[in-house]
Amino acid sequence: MVAAFIAIFSGPVIAKVTGQCGNCHTMHNSQGGTSMTTGYEAGSGPYGTLLRANGCLGCHAATGGDIWQGVGGAPIVYNTSAPNYGDSYNMVNQGLAGGNFYWVKTDDTKGHNVFFGEGDGNLSEAPGNTRNCSNDSCHQNLHIAFGGGSSHSGGGHASLKGRFGCTGCHMVSNDGALSGFHHADDTTDAVVDTAGQGWYRFLSGHKHGDGHGVSGIEDSNWQQNPSSSVHNEYLGYVASKTAPYGLANNTMTGFCCGCHGRFHVQESSGEWIRHPSDAVIPVSGEYQYYITYDPLAPVARPDLTGWTGPSSSVNENGAVAKDMVMCLSCHRPHGSPYPDMLRWDYDDMIAGGGGADGTGCFVCHTSKDGT
């Protein structure tokens, strides 16, 4: 057993493990004649790498709408009833920072379809997709297991075979195994920007290793109770707007562009026919008044070097134009109560008046507000 443990859990991130191993793993799946499986839809077990819970939702799902932490303190991303916690800053509760897959189960338009075999009733592939990969690739659909055919045999694709849903975006380790990154420390305010740290929220592409993941600062409570000074921090980069860009700059928008690249492209004439993304927020005109960070309209920072925690300011209180609007400024990556995974009800965004003063679009577009 000792040899097995060493073989499975050896690696540079082992020093980050905290808590009892038995919270997540079982040696023989039996204690006093009782199965050791646990979590949402536990099943019979045991599972790969001796896990007690079945797949990602085994630890990251809950039945009650007020539960935001699961097995071993894992953040809940799917409640079977509407979540009534998190992100209550200016708006109704929407779950943790990424939102919640509860709304996807009720309406395909409100989140990413990650449940196996549950196709989208409106879309056949990721909107804005620029990749010429097969229909079962992670760039096309998340509810279909990646086949990993001969055309995808190189570039790290082999480790993706069979992946779908959560592991279509969250690479749980560098070698493709369901182990490793979960032993990284995500409870500090340090910048997470290397493969050895597990990347920001385990977000990494099929090209593994340093240079191919997302950088950021992780709030230890996953924004369960955010404020202007308690929140995640995201990296941004002002890239060319005439072509999609990828993970080379380690940004959240670059990661989103892996499937939605066209949404980042500006017309060759210079016109924007889609909302700018990773574009600097000016410190003039109506934008100059967004100076206190709003967790419901997060921004991306041009450089997180040396940061030891989140900042409550945007553009250094309006002094220097540097912070950016990004994909997550408007969308939640898992799901939200609103169509298109928006952070707010777009129908309430009424120029010159309405019931959403100072929120949503009006956080940046202050002159359009009714107040």
Low-confidence sequence ranges: 1-17
Proportion of residues in helical segments = under 10%
Count of alpha and pi helical runs: 5
Spatial gap, N to C terminus: 66 Å
Mean residue pLDDT: 80
Strand order of the largest sheet: 3-4-5-7
Q: Overall 3D geometry?
A: globular
Describe this structure in words.
With 371 residues, this protein is low in regular secondary structure. Helices cover 8% and strands 5% of the residues. It has helices at 2-9, 57-60, 102-106, 252-260, 315-318, and strands at residues 61-62, 78-79, 191-192, 216-217, 233-235, 279-280, 300-301, 324-325. The strands form three sheets. A four-stranded mixed sheet has the order 3-4-5-7, with no helix packed on it. A two-stranded parallel sheet has the order 1-2. The protein has a two-stranded antiparallel ribbon with strand order 6-8. The chain is globular and about 70 Å long.
What's the arrangement of secondary structure elements?
Elements: H1 2-9, H2 57-60, E1 61-62, E2 78-79, H3 102-106, E3 191-192, E4 216-217, E5 233-235, H4 252-260, E6 279-280, E7 300-301, H5 315-318, E8 324-325
Parallel strand pairs: 1-2, 5-7
Antiparallel strand pairs: 3-4, 4-5, 6-8
Summarize the structure in short:
The protein is low in regular secondary structure. It has helices spanning 2-9, 57-60, 102-106, 252-260, 315-318; strands at 61-62, 78-79, 191-192, 216-217, 233-235, 279-280, 300-301, 324-325. It has a domain at 1-75.
